[in-house]
Design a protein that fits this description.
Blueprint: E1 12-19, E2 24-31, E3 36-40, H1 46-56, E4 59-64, H2 70-73, H3 76-83, E5 86-88, H4 95-98, H5 101-108, E6 127-130, E7 133-139, E8 148-152, E9 157-161, E10 164-165, E11 168-169, H6 179-190, E12 198-201, E13 207-208, H7 209-215
Parallel strand pairs: 3-4, 4-5, 9-12
Antiparallel strand pairs: 1-2, 2-3, 6-7, 7-8, 8-9, 10-11, 12-13
Length: 220
Amino acid sequence: MSNESAPPKAPLKAAIIRVTPFEQNCTLIWNEATKIGAVVDPGGDLDRITGAIEETGISIEKILLTHGHIDHAGGAADLRDQLGVKIEGPHKNDAILLDNLEKQGEQYGLPGVRNVTPDRWLEEGDSVTVAGHKFQIFHCPGHSPGSVVYYDPTQRFALVGDVLFRGSIGRTDFPYGDHEALISSIKTKLLPLGDDIAFICGHGPPGQFGPERQTNPFLV
């Protein structure tokens, strides 16, 4: 995720831990110099997440949520309790999802899931700091009403949740989904950032905005 134009601070590193039966990309991001970082979208399988934290030797300063679906937020409450840190994100429009995680768990046969309220809701134009790196916040509704994207302009890198995938986009046939809003979010907020932007998404392999703009069947 490093870039030649990045400041002299150590670049952030990332590791993906696939969790839950939905194969969700829970992501660790951290500063290798300080060993401080964050957990993004701890959907479940907390033993695997905490094991990865121990393996990398990092100290977690916060939890970030891209949106309120169970495969992304189902383990957030328990992990917050275990680590003693705060949760930031998503946008408040996903409160209806986070307030019903327990019901989602019953629906999908995932026991032990707890509802969660973040310590900080995020709005368009806010920023979040992880290990000294500032991420800009984009509110990108469509897959869910409160989906947010975290963008680090110094490293030309984004955490996009289920807004965008390599070769696809987030589903909009769930309750509160909106296909037109999702396409608008991607085309008006993300793609203008530049073709070179690398992204980690909520499922599947990472990608770059350029190839998605040029070949993603939902965007061309």
